[in-house]
Amino acid sequence: MLVFNSHMFSLRVFTSFVLASSTLGQSTAPYQSELSTLADRLVHEIELSKLADRLAGEIALPRKHAPTSLKILVLDVPNQRGMANVLGQRMSESLSDLLAERLGTEHVVDQKQFRAALLSAGISPFDMQNNDVAFWNAKKAGANLIVFGQLHSSAAETTLTVQLVRVPGKEELSTGSTDLTLTEEVRSLVDKFPAWHFDPAVLVPCLVSTRDAVAALYKTAGVSRPKCIHCPQASYTDEARKARYQGAAKFDAIIDQQGRVSAATLIQGDDYGLATQAMSAIKNWRLEPAARDGKPVRVCVQIETTFRLY
């Protein structure tokens, strides 16, 4: 069953369907039908709300003739424990391809290329589950709509829930969900971590952004978290001050055995040079290093530097 709720029009649609096995080719996964219906609903909500009107200042056009400014990014889908997984990666790729078929490839950010660009920059695709990080990187990729998602699995079924969110303003426009028809082999992929490459010398990598998940990760590894000893704040830039900009810069940072930031990757920045200031500042930080069994170890932590005008 697919459920879709539009926050703009209070529209709630229930669509049930039965798939005859004879209608599916051997190369077509059973869940493709559910994803196709979900993609249809997403496109319908865009047209119904005349979102294209507000984005481009034009009259909404048929699917394959959407205004050129419309650009959608589908993010990798975490499981119910908030972890990246192979099934969620596969669902996001399929949904992205289906939207491209309906709206035109020029209106959808290539999901595989986006993930590859993140990885080449040293950013975990799962950093995108942090909303601020996701919006900043989506904007860099030219997207003005994001499809967030989450997988919920039980012994009997797996449900995919998605949210359609506008990048400027972070307004949630609609939500939808569908039960997925999966084989046991495919269903098990919801707990399999993707084959991303991380520095094996980093005992705890930056894989998650939620506090609970981070705490659980450190607890499982039996590692204490680094603590600041001398962590001065970065200074404002003249450009940011003139624009009266307030915000944050976020980094995935490796803390070495001496408690120094040996490497840092920018995962959320700004347009006023504050991220550069923050990068310079954290390279001079001194921390109490993480430790396991009393011995210092290298770990990755997410560092956030906040800028506020008073």
General form: globular
Distance between the termini: 51 Å
Write the CATH homologous superfamily of the largest domain.
ABC-type transport auxiliary lipoprotein component
Q: What's the helical proportion of residues? A: 25-40%
How many H/I helices?
Answer: 9
CATH class of the largest domain: Alpha Beta
Looking at the structure, the CATH topology of the largest domain is Rossmann fold
DSSP E strands, number: 13
β-sheet strand percentage: 15-25%
CATH architecture heading of the largest domain: 3-Layer(aba) Sandwich
Give the spatial strand order of the biggest sheet: 2-1-6-5-4-3
Structural class: alpha+beta
Give the radius of gyration.
21 Å
Question: Describe the biggest sheet?
Answer: 6 strands, mixed
Total separate domains: 2
* Secondary-structure element series: EEHHEHHHEEEHHEHEEHEEEE
Low-confidence stretches: 2-26, 58-62, 64-68
On the 0-100 scale, what is the average pLDDT?
82
Keywords:
3-stranded antiparallel β-sheet; 310 residues; 2 domains; 9 helices; Rossmann fold; alpha+beta; TolA/TonB C-terminal domain
Overview of this structure, please?
By secondary structure, this protein is an alpha+beta fold. The chain folds into two domains: 2-191, ABC-type transport auxiliary lipoprotein component (Rossmann fold), CATH 3.40.50.10610; 211-307, TonB (TolA/TonB C-terminal domain, 2-Layer Sandwich). Helices cover 30% and strands 25% of the residues. It contains nine helices and 13 strands. The protein has a six-stranded mixed beta sheet, with helices on one face. The protein starts with a strand and ends with a strand.
